[in-house]
Structures are given as structure tokens and as C-alpha cells.
Sequence to fold (110 residues):
Amino acid sequence: ELMDKVQPDIVVTDWYAARNDCGCQYRLCVQLLSRDYTVVQEFKPERVFIEQWNDAKWRQVSHTFHNYGPGVRYIKFEHGGKDTQFWAGWYGVRVTNSSVLIQPSRADIE
Fold:
């Protein structure tokens, strides 16, 4: 009932960074899915490419789904990437602190 009638905001956030000595690609795809796994809405920003010898700073990506309509039952959150140097081992993108928040307003739940 909450998801169909109230349709609270759904806020997705992810943090990513590269090693400073190895470039990488980062990708994110978040889908709101119906009961039969049909995509209701999707957030899929363009891939991010970070060059080798970068500042290794953590970067944040965030998106809020609004007014997505009734029928949302699942949220698919997929992120990842790979290094651009093709080194053996794990040198690709680093990800942390990912979150999916369902945020009804106080008025919605009273």
C-alpha cells in the first residue's frame, strides 16, 4: 500500500574511487521493478572513466526516484567496473557506502 499509494521517494547513493596508479571504469544501474520484474523506472548514468595517475578521490553519485507510479515491488542495484590497465589482480574501481533509502514524508505516514 505504501509503495502504491504514497509512492515515497527512493534515494540511491553510491561512492566510488580509483587507485591513483591505475585508471578504471565505473558503472551504476538501479531499476525499480514490478512484481513480474518488469522495469518501471531506471537510473543508468553514463560510464565514468578515471585516468591513470588520478587524485584517487572518492566521488558520490546519487539519484532520487519521484512519482514512479504504482506497482514497484523490487529494487535492483548493480554497480561495478574494471581497471583500464588490464593488470592481473584486483585493481579496478573501489566502491563503498552504497545505500537505497525509502523516504516517505512525515505527512505520508500520519
Notes: The beta strands are 9-17, 24-33, 39-43, 48-50, 59-65, 74-83, 94-103. The two ends are 14 Å apart (CA to CA).
